[in-house]
Amino acid sequence: MAAAVALAPGALGPLQAGRARLVAVCSARLGPGLRLPGSLAGRQVGRAIWAQGWAPAATGPAPKRGYSSEAKTEDELRVRHLEEENRGIVVLGINRAYGKNSLSKNLIKMLSKAVDALKSDKKVRTVIIRSEVPGIFCAGADLKERAKMNSSEVGPFVSKIRAVINDIANLPVPTIAAIDGLALGGGLELALACDIRVAASSAKMGLVETKLAIIPGGGGTQRLPRAIGMSLAKELIFSARVLDGQEAKGVGLVSHVLEQNQEGDAAYRKALDLAREFLPQGPVAMRVAKLAINQGMEVDLVTGLAIEEACYAQIIPTKDRLEGLLAFKEKRPPRYKGE
């Protein structure tokens, strides 16, 4: 992980890591033994990019769909491992109706525990984050709880929120946010950490923290500009403007927008359709592709191409690659095992 940047008292500091540090960070994220080519660090490439939870397990075909019985009604976060034809899809359902799904201490603790479990679960292929509460995705921080904190408690708690959201962003499998309702402040930051965002046209979303004389603290000042561009992100944060689903689609904040259905879960249904599209693909390739994209977006093009080269090298010796070629030759669906 990148080293923390020390700030001088009362000053923001340059907040700019050197090129050598950035290359070192990228090499570390690529996995043991990887080196970036050329003058950066040579061309040695290791064979374990999917180490530490990056190697997915096999998923077998199944003709039907269904849910497991893991969710508990009283939980603020319901974790469902879908079964049968949807095997490999995990749904994290926020279920804190009385608090408009706001990010409380308990909910953050539950999210952290769930995400930690997903990191090491080789059977997981795609994660969907949704709300179990109609009309609400996540209203942001629990301000009633926040009002009871003293000043010394606020910073560490916001750091916990930021850490959990970062963990979601760093999950090795594709993640989809299904926004069927209100997503404000930390709720939108949670969605921004996902690879793909899908929204109902009636959904409302925005980073509204400046109304409360604070700034987004869960990654919003960094992820929103990367998603929609710096100038527009500044405009939205400075104005605390709230967008509906169509407006969000227009600025590139979400990938798909749908008219809300009678059940109130149009975005979730679209997210599930997308997740199903991902299931047939090579599990190792999906994870390594995500790593290459994520790391490449943080560096210059030359370094990014070197990251892609190193990532591609990890795919060459896999059994799945050979299976893909064989299946193409035999004109049949591939049977990938994540090896």
Q: In brief, what are we looking at here?
A:
This is AU RNA binding methylglutaconyl-CoA hydratase. Helices cover 41% and strands 13% of the residues.
Which terms summarize this structure?
about 350 residues; alpha/beta; 2-enoyl-CoA Hydratase, Chain A, domain 1; 2 domains; six-stranded mixed sheet; four-stranded mixed sheet; globular
Measured as a percent range, the helix fraction is: 40-55%
Would you report the number of β strands? 12
CATH fold-level label of the largest domain = 2-enoyl-CoA Hydratase, Chain A, domain 1
**Measured distance between first and last alpha carbons:** 27 Å
Strand content: 5-15%
Rounded radius of gyration (Å): 21 Å
- Annotated CATH architecture of the largest domain: Alpha-Beta Complex
Query: Low-confidence spans: pLDDT under 50, at least 5 residues?
Result: 1-23, 30-73
Protein name: AU RNA binding methylglutaconyl-CoA hydratase
GO molecular function, one term: enoyl-CoA hydratase activity
Subcellular location: Mitochondrion
InterPro entries: ClpP/crotonase-like_dom_sf, Enoyl-CoA_hyd/isom_CS, Enoyl-CoA_hydra/iso, Enoyl-CoA_hydra_C
